[in-house]
Amino acid sequence: MDNFSIGIIGMGDMGRMYARRLSQAGWRVNACDKPDNWQPLKDEFKDNNLVEILPNGHLVSRTSDWIIYSVEAESIDKIVAEYGPSTKVGAIVGGQTSCKAPELAAFDKHLPADVEIVSCHSLHGPKVDSRGQPLVIIQHRASQNAVERVEKVLACFQSTYVHLTGEMHDRITADTQAVTHVAFLSMGSAWRANNQFPWELPRYIGGIENVKINIMLRIYSNKWHVYAGLAILNPSAKKQIRQYAVSVTDLFKLILGGHKAELSYRLKKAGKAVFGDPAKRSELLLRDDVLDRFSLSQAPQERRPNNHLSLLAIVDCWWKLGIVPYDHMICSTPLFRIWLGVTEYLFCNEELLDDAIRASFEDSSHVSDDLEFTFGARAWSDCVSFGDFESYRDRFEHTQQYFAPRFPEASRVGNEMISTILERTTAKT
């Protein structure tokens, strides 16, 4: 593979991360972004003689042997239609979007017949250590030799290859990411609506709360389109997000109606379906003493019970949809593994689950937050069901602005938390 070069069309956070990592491994990279980003990118990479920033995707496509489209899923068809016909004869083309159905359809529609298609998806964010993380490879229209060349290029990430079809990829990412994201998006919406910084309140102190707060901030510190494309363009994701909103609403109505026995029966039935018999689980993915270390709160660590409606609803949702989350651990994101860990911790600790159910009826301080959380889950579901990217962006960015002052500290604490937790979850799965 002498003189083999990689093209990257789209130099957002992931595109730039790929350019840096691949060039560090000795590969030549040709890259481009929107025209107004050309000079800033040339300045950013001026000291890297293996990365050439080109004015447009035509030049990237004509000169590269494997072209990666690292663009918003919403825009993939338009961008491939523009640059795809310029693809070098015999080259390989792939994409990094989180929803493969529109990406692969765009490749089939707009790429020349002599081009091979091998797509990929790094299942982690640009700031997460890629070692050991899942890296999906999709052999869509390609020889085995083309796949092996792509694998050789990507070897520098030291990730774990997972070979899937595009359809399997979309189903699994819906199972592992769609509902996880909407849960945290709804938390942020609720706290903003109530004008709260949760780490300042005693009911949001403790290990599980640390995870909820840190990951919420981490998601909102990213770009809105990362989550919008996966949710809106993936048919499986729409169904699951809708069910999550229904589960949140159903559980909240049981709480408001004072139906404690019915809520307890429903949740324990759901927990058994998802996690099996808690008494038979040898060891949990996580423990509270690990999570207690990662707090943004400066207040004394005096914990108050929380009903954890977001966690109760995720298990109810999985149960209603027949999802067994452990089935997809090989292809899961760091955030999903953490979310599964804390959910398992709550449901497999009978005393903790009973405390959460009891708090739902005996502590009215949660009602305002739970009401806004329910509104939030339903509103996010509506954005997705209607395919409304602009409403999704507006809701996301309003909450993003509210929490923005805490992003730097949350990023530091969150990176440490994710690194520590992943060491534990990876070892046990």
The overall pLDDT, averaged over residues, is 89
- Describe the global form: elongated
* Backbone CA Rg: 22 Å
Strand order, main sheet: write it out: 3-2-1-4-5-6-7-8
- Residue share in helix: 55-70%
Number of strands: 8
**Helix-strand category:** alpha/beta
Task: Estimate the strand proportion.
Answer: 5-15%
The SSE string, one letter per element, is EHEHEHEHEHEEHEHHHHHHHHHHHH
> Which segments are poorly predicted (pLDDT under 50) over 5 or more consecutive residues?
294-300
Query: Counting H and I runs of at least 4 residues, what is the number of helices?
Result: 18
Largest sheet: number of strands, sense, barrel closure: 8 strands, mixed
Gap between N and C termini, in Å?
36 Å
Task: Describe what you observe in this structure.
With 429 residues, this protein is an alpha/beta fold. It has helices spanning 13-24, 38-44, 57-63, 76-83, 100-110, 144-154, 166-193, 207-220, 224-233, 235-256, 260-275, 288-291, 309-321, 334-347, 350-362, 367-385, 389-403, 407-428; strands at residues 5-9, 28-32, 51-53, 66-69, 92-95, 116-122, 134-141, 160-163. An 8-stranded mixed β-sheet has the order 3-2-1-4-5-6-7-8, sandwiched between helices. Helix 5 links the parallel strand 5 and strand 6 (116-122). Helix 8 runs antiparallel to helix 14, helix 9 (224-233) runs antiparallel to helix 17 and helix 11 (260-275) crosses helix 13. The longest helix has 28 residues, at 166-193. It is elongated.
